Amino acid sequence: MCLAYSGQWYAAKVKTVIFAEYHMRAYNQISGKNVQRIEALSDGVFAIALTLLVLDVRVPIREHIVYEKDLVVEFSRLTPKLLTYLLSFMTLGIFWTAHSSQFHYIEKSDRNFNWLNLSFLLFVTVIPFTTAFLSEFISFRFAVAVYWLNLFLLGIMLRRILNYAYKHDYFKSDMHEKAEIRKALVRRGNSAQSLYAIGALLCFISTYLSIAVLIIIQLYFVLAFPKSQSGVVPKNR
């Protein structure tokens, strides 16, 4: 009798697990289908992160200012925060542009794709912290390493979003150059990450040199638009 009861209990348990797994699969198949919601959330997160950057730049305390030279001295002390603010503002702008460039070609998504994008946004929201950390400890190599790690993880997650969309055929159905466009986006990401790594390694010479080179790299990506940058001119833009 005990064996019969155990068999019934086990059969009921198996049915419960199968039922739960079926409904989980059904949920996974219907959730996360709206690409526009991903783009809207991403734009909002980037906007907030960009705004938070400036909050770390504080106006000098009025009571400490008596003469003109006092104000100049206090303003000069803001140099680390202003440099890192400029660096991170361009960084977020570059990654937002890269993200929007990818989603220009993507028309479908799923639950896993949503979470890949949320993981990317996780590292976007960390940028204000790593920026403040870098500005506060600008002469420390570890602070530069933490900031570079943030850039590296942003690049990794952006690549994973692109690869997932390509692998699952989430690109626009009327595109005829999917492989070429993916290669162009990957090539741009690889060049950026290589330059970031070089800039970060310069901290072993000087942290200020490292930050200056990172700023120059970001200025290059912001201002330089070579005609043959991607080697691909999509016909359906």
Written description of the protein model:
The protein has 237 residues and is mostly helical. Helix content is 75%, strand content 0%. Mean pLDDT is 82; it is low at 228-237.
Order of helices and strands: HHHHHHHH
Number of strands: 0
> How would a crystallographer describe the biggest sheet?
none
What proportion of the residues form beta strands (DSSP E)? under 5%
Distance between the terminal alpha carbons, to the nearest Å?
71 Å
Poorly predicted sequence stretches spanning 5 or more consecutive residues: 228-237
The Cα radius of gyration reads: 24 Å
Which structural class fits the helix and strand makeup?
mainly alpha
Helix content: over 70%
Query: What is the typical, i.e. mean, pLDDT?
Result: 82
Q: Enumerate how many helices there are, as a single number.
A: 8
Shape: elongated
Question: Care to give the gist of this entry?
Answer:
The protein is mainly α.
Chart the SSEs and their pairings:
Elements: H1 2-30, H2 35-54, H3 68-76, H4 79-103, H5 111-136, H6 141-167, H7 178-201, H8 207-223
Helix pairs in contact: 2-4, 2-5, 4-5, 4-6, 4-8, 5-6, 6-7, 7-8
